[in-house]
């Protein structure tokens, strides 16, 4: 199959796979090509999306490729989310999602210890929206369920990995304090060097 047909087929496959996306191995199997050819096809599609007036692009999350919207169109999507017909996450669900994202894997009890309130409802909402999922059980008394964020979470927030999560405010404060301490000691050293 020539490259243009493979690109079109790949675009259709990624669209059909929806939020789950497809791995390189899956694409290679369906297209009946090797994984190196998949790299070429995906790179060609990415190039097309970047150099033409298109509203979508290909994002890679872990080993999966997804069709997603472009970040530069974010303000249109924000307006769409703000429309009355859209359903947004509640403040409780957003708090719970942030706690899970930064502390995963985490149990419901640990979430509730951080939030200080029952989190059954927000956890169920996040599971139903496929933003979090169960990831086994903690090896402690009662073996509580552990929760982690999903690939859809990464896709929804436009992240390729959890390392791209913004730093927590406490981390920023710690970094600033370290920088100030370093500057203090450098200044102290300069003053005592003569």
Automatic annotation (TrEMBL):
Subcellular location(s) per record: Cytoplasm
Organism: Salinibacillus aidingensis
Protein name (database record): Segregation and condensation protein B
UniProt family annotation: Belongs to the ScpB family.
Coiled coil stretches, renumbered: none
Subunit comment: Homodimer. Homodimerization may be required to stabilize the binding of ScpA to the Smc head domains. Component of a cohesin-like complex composed of ScpA, ScpB and the Smc homodimer, in which ScpA and ScpB bind to the head domain of Smc. The presence of the three proteins is required for the association of the complex with DNA.
Summary of the function given for this chain in its UniProt record: Participates in chromosomal partition during cell division. May act via the formation of a condensin-like complex containing Smc and ScpA that pull DNA away from mid-cell into both cell halves.
Keywords of this entry: Cell cycle, Cell division, Chromosome partition, Cytoplasm
Domain of life: Bacteria
Lineage: Bacteria, Bacillati, Bacillota, Bacilli, Bacillales
